[in-house]
Design goal:
Helices cover 31% and strands 25% of the residues. By secondary structure, it is of the alpha+beta class. The longest helix is centred in the middle third of the chain and has 21 residues, at 108-128.
Length: 182
């Protein structure tokens, strides 16, 4: 007799579920079992195992297996390399071509306004999300945007700003450190 064959009246258990019962009906690979509470349930035969002939297992052993299954899988912790630990959590590129499709018809004043609005919005976002380090990439140019950014940052008493990592950004970026209160 094939061990995968089920017959009406066989005691069966559902794999990966704490459900057992007696086979009531077989329809191809679909098996209807009735639980001891009297509920009919349908399962594919591959999800069932016969109870008869199974080595008896104590409730303690079953509890141990269940406990192991319920343990959350340990996630591989990402080891932060020393260089990355000091890396900013957020970068904001204020180069105008990153912010708009075209600058046609825009004055320098319009462009600066867009860049400053973006900077304010991103700074507010960082504060709201409790991001401590933000690098604003402003480029070198004539230094007007950098000057405006520094003027903006001076208005906040919960942050400090300084030139960002020279090796990574050259002179074209300012890093902001936001103090978290509480």
């Amino acid at each position: 007799m094939d061990k995968d064959k089920f017959s009406v009246g066989d005691k069966v258990e559902v794999l990966d579920e704490a459900i057992s019962g007696v086979v009531e009906q077989i329809d191809g690979t679909l098996i209807t079992l009735v639980t001891k509470e009297g509920f009919p349930m349908k399962y594919d035969q591959k999800d069932l195992v016969k109870v008869r002939g199974v080595i008896p297992v104590s409730n303690f052993e079953i509890a141990q297996v269940k406990k192991e299954k319920e343990l959350p899988k340990r996630r591989k912790s990402n080891v932060v390399k020393p260089k990355e630990r000091n890396a900013p959590k957020m970068e904001v590129d204020l180069h105008i071509h990153q912010l708009v499709k075209s600058t046609r018809g825009m004055s320098n004043y319009d462009i600066l306004n867009i860049q400053m609005e973006t900077a304010k919005r991103q700074l507010a976002f960082a504060m709201e999300k409790r991001i401590q380090k933000v690098v604003f990439i402003h480029g070198v140019g004539e230094g007007i945007l950098k000057e405006e950014l520094h003027y903006l940052f001076k208005k906040y008493d919960n942050l400090k700003y300084y030139d960002a990592d020279y090796q990574k950004y050259g002179l074209g970026a300012t890093e902001v450190y936001i103090y978290q209160n509480g």
